[in-house]
Write a structure and sequence with these properties.
Length: 259
């Protein structure tokens, strides 16, 4: 059958490279519904609440501040070792349409635990709506993707296997979801070490959360505790910050009464 040959776009080529880099990571996953009723009640107070991606980016960073293993990378050079970062760096999967083609590009959000939730949300919304040339994380990754194949392979090898460079390019955890498109069970791939994905808000006010992680870095017992702590942070620190964004009602004017 005669078909049509189409050129592989730069965003698609980036996915090829990302999948190749993820192919040898021994991922394990744990899924749990989190009861987020207090968080949902706090979001309902706002006319325009920060998005769920921003909420999970910051919540995971707050948990990682307490748990150094969530800021730990496995690197191979100059010899196999764990590399602990002083702060978390998130990569958020941003779905876009470029030149009529669906694509996903990674937006970097460093130290989300130190940022206001509104600022985390603004970084993510900017990556969704701004031209690619105006998003530094997109420019950096696509610039490397334009390299010839041998240089591209070298870039990925160096970027993945030296702790400092790996953090700069690939962060310490990724956040992704298809909730905006109807939900579903998403088991994403990345170079690791941690990937968090979340689903739709269910009628019982739970959200299904999946954490996939590099089994070389930690075991399931710790991730189970992380999910418990994540639920607590969502309903306490994050909900409190959302309630703090509520604008106080303006006092009603006092009508003068004639005497």
């Amino acid at each position: 059958m005669r078909g049509t040959t189409r050129k592989i776009s730069m965003p698609r080529r980036l996915v090829f490279d990302l999948m190749r880099a993820s192919s040898d990571v021994p991922f394990v996953s744990l899924r749990r519904p989190l009861n987020v009723r207090p968080l949902i009640d706090a979001r309902a107070l706002l006319k325009r609440s920060p998005g769920w991606a921003a909420i999970f980016v910051k919540a995971f960073a707050l948990v990682a501040k307490e748990q150094p293993v969530l800021r730990t990378l496995y690197v191979k050079w100059p010899w196999p070792a764990f590399y602990e970062l002083p702060r978390s760096i998130a990569l958020v999967a941003i779905a876009r349409i470029e030149d009529g083609e669906d694509c996903v590009l990674p937006q970097k959000v460093p130290a989300a635990d130190t940022l206001p939730l509104t600022e985390v949300d603004a970084l993510i919304r900017h990556a969704k709506n701004a031209p690619i040339s105006e998003v530094p994380a997109f420019r950096k990754m696509l610039r490397a993707t334009r390299l010839p194949l041998p240089l591209r392979r070298l870039f990925w090898v160096v970027g993945l296997n030296f702790g400092r460079q790996r953090a700069n390019y690939f962060g310490s955890y990724a956040v992704t979801s298809v909730a905006a498109y109807g939900g579903g069970e998403l088991e994403a791939l990345s170079p690791g070490p941690f990937i968090l994905s979340y689903g739709l808000v269910e009628p019982d006010q739970t959200i299904s959360v999946v954490i996939r992680w590099d089994h070389r870095v930690c075991d399931a017992a710790l991730v189970a505790r992380v999910l418990t702590r994540l639920e607590q942070v969502l309903n306490a620190e994050i909900a409190a910050e959302l309630r703090g964004l509520v604008q106080p009602a303006e006092p009603k004017p006092v009508r003068a009464v004639a005497t």
